[in-house]
Design a protein that fits this description.
It contains no helices and 29 strands. The chain is mainly beta and 356 residues long. It is globular and about 55 Å long.
Length: 356
């Protein structure tokens, strides 16, 4: 899972160098997946109607370069999408185009003119998009030899954003990475150090929740952790990959083929899909309007929909070793980022609800 460099650390101080002073306005903005939702810190209650399934689907090629590994996507709408991972690509509603000279690995935003991206490097780079152009906001480092690897960016307000990943110090030594943006500056967050890499982060009741993994000689140990500002609490540890998303402000974590909600320091089973070919990808507008990926046969895959009662495949396609990397949900459309590892093609699949 983690790559290594072969250098040894020369110092342990944290340094963030600011190369531009473009500060976005401090606004309280709801995460875009939270569509028409209100929430208290309690078990999710959903009285919404089951989601519709009458979509019109289109597939767009992003790149045929097998060395570009696009694995993250964010957009303010279906006609304003960004995909990153070894490159930076933008969709304007008609076609995808490459923005040359930028190589972020993660991206997240709040509006068309307030988007953040970060890239892996010894001087981990963070860029900002103001609606017109991208600019380097700052670089982050802990030594001349350690390399910062970002796995995701997430925030619940424009002045409360987190970037997570891991810091590779040597070939075998690494530790977790957590940066926080307060509306003015990005800062390293102090926490007990451990040999661990964060995959994702969410906030809940004044605490942070992480998914991540630690490499062992026999494989990876995946974990769900809670951080109260001083100490970590282990919520899950095992050999099954744990991935996190949010629906209406509730944190959902799927481990293997079981999906849980995170509630007050514990995982509560939401749905068990052990008997179906669930292959990851989980995003939705409500608990009755969820998309997921399924395998339906040899080299045959599907985007499926869960309406709170049953699952139905809504779009089928073919490929070799096809993987879903990210999903964006909007009011009347859903966009999926995927790749065919055999051919090297990276693509987007967009479903738009038919007018009523």
């Amino acid at each position: 899972m983690f790559s290594r460099n072969r250098n040894t650390p020369s110092q342990t101080s944290f340094t963030i160098n600011y190369v531009t002073r473009v500060y976005p306005a401090i606004l309280i903005v709801t995460f875009f997946l939270s569509i028409s939702c209100s929430r208290q810190i309690t078990e999710p209650v959903d009285d919404s109607a089951p989601g519709r399934r009458d979509y019109v689907w289109t597939v767009d090629t992003i790149t045929t370069d097998p060395f570009v590994n696009l694995s993250r996507m964010w957009g303010s709408g279906p006609n304003d999408l960004w995909a990153v991972g070894g490159g930076l690509y933008h969709f304007d509603g008609n076609s995808w185009s490459e923005i040359k000279g930028y190589f972020p690995s993660v991206i997240f935003g709040f509006s068309q003119n307030d988007i953040w991206a970060a890239g892996n490097a010894a001087d981990g780079r963070i860029w900002h998009f103001n609606g017109i152009s991208w600019s380097l906001f700052c670089t982050c480092s802990i030594s001349e030899t350690a390399v910062l690897f970002f796995s995701n960016i997430w925030g619940d307000a424009a002045n409360n954003i987190y970037a997570v990943g891991y810091i590779s110090i040597s070939e075998t030594e690494y530790k977790q990475l957590l940066l926080h943006y307060d509306g003015i500056k990005w800062k390293f967050v102090k926490m007990p150090e451990m040999r661990f890499g964060f995959y994702d982060v969410r906030s809940y009741g004044g605490k942070l929740v992480f998914t991540g993994a630690r490499d062992e000689s026999y494989g990876s140990t995946y974990k769900v952790l809670e951080f109260d500002g001083s100490n970590f609490k282990e919520i899950y540890s095992g050999t099954s990959y744990a991935q996190m998303t949010s629906i209406c402000g509730t944190i959902y974590i799927y481990i293997g083929k079981k999906v849980y909600t995170y509630q007050n320091g514990r995982l509560v089973l939401f749905v068990d899909w052990e008997s179906m070919p669930f292959c990851g990808g989980f995003a939705g507008r409500s608990t009755k309007d969820i998309f997921l990926g399924t395998v339906i046969g040899y080299n045959t895959y599907a985007i499926a929909h869960y309406n709170g009662t049953n699952i139905q495949n809504v779009f089928e396609f073919w490929g070799n070793r096809v993987g879903f990397h990210y999903t964006q949900i909007f009011d009347s459309s859903a966009v999926f980022l995927g790749s065919d590892d055999n051919s090297g093609v990276t693509f987007s699949i967009t479903g738009k609800l038919k007018p009523q």
